[in-house]
Specification:
- α15 packs across α16.
- By secondary structure, this protein is an all-alpha fold.
- The strands form two sheets. A two-stranded antiparallel ribbon has the order 1-2. The chain has a two-stranded antiparallel ribbon with strand order 3-4.
- It is globular.
- A hairpin with a 2-residue loop joins β1 and β2.
Length: 490
């Protein structure tokens, strides 16, 4: 049996169409409510809450406004999560942003989101988390001296390699790993919140005096403060990447998203209150590992545990990222917007092996260079541009197709508020940080010629190119022992 792939043909190493069963090759529905909550919380709570406080304070200018930014980012992220809960129950396909843009705005925006996910957003975000993992693993052994950057990058790559291996090996193992790491990272947050709140109750409030000092206010940089805060909340949309694998999605997607976002918002605000109770704004800004500095002052007997817990938290976010992100590439390839090889599943492991492996070398290259906050700002423009477009598409789809089934429907005021605020942040960031956001915009638009020259006009590519591409695809398919899914799951 043969299948057209980007203008050519590639052999399918699979049997005739199979019925659902133990031997059929497809991604099973194995994600229950607990696993769904673990995916959302586990990918939201990663390195962000441990590195973003510095960025939020730096760009907001004072303690009071930074706390307000944290609360508003939580509310805005919850609004966005509710919109995605509606999208996830309205369109039962995996793929998150890609799928929703395809269904509401058309193939070009969907392809551009797929394009920028691979070459910019996912590698940048994953690199930030992995570098934070490396820093928290290595730094305690060199304190008070700075840790060697090369050693940090080596451990960052080891963490990435571990989660790639887990996600290639088994979906169930990746899911169980995510649940375990999520419980550990929530314990880490509690360990930070409790000492800070106890100190606050005892009257240690001097760091909150003149909290809204206007002398240090930097309004033109405020969108970057929101970017840093929203980065820490990033991940609320990750469950939508695996919609086809969620048990009873009409119930479990909205329930897990609402519970997770309320929990995370409360925890994040309390964590930052704890930071400011124990540390001054100046001390927080000069610290490269805020949680470690905090632990040294409040948990003398357990201070060495905090870096371990933070590293585990980052590892959980990495695992969740490599669990969900390949599903977008998988769905895009299944729809013909990506080479068909990446829509294939390992015949025994039942994992999207090619899609998982595709991200690995790109992340390795990104880890090798880049500064944390530059990477956050660089990726945030494209990410939030397409999120804004997806929720705008949801509103357009509501108007055009009012009879379309929507098991969960978010109030229109919430959807409009989120969309308008998101577009405002995206637009204003071009003024605040034109270099990084402009570069991100250019990389996004670089997908337009790829779409028209390769996808739309693939039949016009030289025959020798197509034949070589198809030959390589077939050999890789045989080498990785992968076939296309044999059961329709949407």
């Amino acid at each position: 049996m043969q299948r057209s792939e980007m203008g050519g043909k590639v052999e399918e190493v699979k049997a005739d169409e199979a019925k659902p069963g133990k031997e059929a090759v497809y991604l099973r529905r194995k994600i229950d409510l607990l696993a769904a909550i673990s995916i959302v919380i586990g990918t939201v709570v990663g390195s962000g809450i441990f590195i973003a406080p510095k960025g939020v304070l730096m760009y907001s200018g004072n303690v009071g406004l930074s706390l307000l930014v944290w609360a508003l980012c939580g509310i805005l992220s919850t609004f966005g999560a509710l919109c995605y809960a509606e999208l996830g129950t309205s369109f039962k396909k995996s793929g998150s942003h890609y799928t929703y843009l395809l269904e509401t705005l058309g193939p070009l925006p969907a392809f551009l989101r797929l394009w920028v996910e691979l070459i910019l957003i996912r590698p940048a975000v994953t690199s930030v988390v992995s570098l934070a993992f490396g820093r928290y693993v290595v730094e305690p052994f060199f304190s008070p001296c700075p840790a060697p950057p090369v050693l940090i990058k080596i451990f960052a790559l080891l963490g990435v390699s571990f989660v790639v291996a887990v996600n290639c090996w088994s979906v169930s193992l990746a899911s169980r790993t995510q649940i375990t790491l999520t419980f550990i990272k929530m314990f880490a947050l509690v360990l930070i919140i409790v000492p800070g709140i106890l100190a606050l109750v005892r009257g240690q409030t001097e760091n909150f005096q003149n909290a809204f000092d206007s002398g240090s206010l930097t309004l033109n940089k405020l969108p970057l403060a929101f970017y840093a805060g929203l980065y820490a909340y990033g991940g609320w949309f990750n469950l939508n990447f695996v919609t086809e694998e969620v048990i009873n999605p009409d119930r479990n997607i909205p329930l897990s998203i609402i519970f997770s976002m309320v929990t995370v918002t409360v925890c994040y605000v309390l964590v930052n209150v704890s930071y400011y109770t124990v540390m001054t704004a100046g001390e927080l800004l000069v610290s490269d590992a805020v949680a470690v500095t905090f632990a040294d002052r409040t948990l003398q007997g357990f201070a060495s545990v905090i870096p371990v817990l933070v590293a585990v938290s980052c590892l959980g976010a990495l695992n969740g990222s490599f669990f969900v992100a390949p599903r977008m590439l998988f769905v895009g390839a299944r729809d013909g917007h990506w080479p068909a090889l990446f829509s294939m599943i390992h015949v025994r492991r039942q994992t999207p092996l090619p899609a998982v492996l595709l991200l690995y070398p790109v992340v390795v290259l990104m880890v090798a260079s880049g500064e944390l906050f530059q990477l956050v700002n660089f990726a945030s423009f494209s990410r939030w541009l397409f999120i804004s477009m997806a929720t705008m598409g949801m509103l357009i789809h509501r108007f055009r197709f009012p009879q379309h089934p929507r098991p969960f429907k978010v109030p229109v005021a919430i959807a409009v508020t989120f969309t308008v605020v998101s577009f405002f942040i995206v637009g204003f960031s071009l003024y605040s940080d034109p270099w990084n956001t402009g570069g991100s915009c250019a990389i996004t638009l670089s997908g337009v010629p790829v779409y028209y020259l390769i996808l739309r006009r693939s039949a016009h590519l030289p025959h020798c190119w197509r034949r070589a591409f198809n030959y390589c695809s077939m050999q890789l398919q045989i080498l990785m022992e992968v076939v296309e899914q044999e059961v329709k799951t949407y």
